Amino acid sequence: MNVEIVADVYQKLSKETLESLTQIYHQDVVFEDSAHRLDGWDALSLYFDNLYRNVIDCRFDIQSSHQSQDCGFIVWVMYLRHPKLKGGSEVAVNGISHLKFSDGKIIHHRDYFDMGEMLYENLPLLGSVIRGIKKRLGQ
To answer: Which stretches within the chain are classed as H helix?
Structure first.
């Protein structure tokens, strides 16, 4: 398994292609991001099923990928449309996935992204507060 295969699966990922994830994830995978830690394929599969059931659209634009032996990184932009974020308008989230492989599949997947960029800045009321704080921090 290499990061190019993983990037290709994610680039094509949709509600209709979720079964393609079984090709790349180890049964004992650990998945982590800013909001979750999931242990095992069953938990990860349920997470993706729920995620794609609740979004209008979610797609990934792969910017680059890098690999050294059994570890790799994928740099991506996720374009997300969710009915509760930004009135259902598209939100772009920049991120990086750190992947570790075992037995030809992903055994550990850690996503790094700005939760504010994805969620907090796009919620009614809270979004304007968060953007205001970030603006003041930049002065």
So the answer is: 3-11, 41-54, 115-118, 126-137
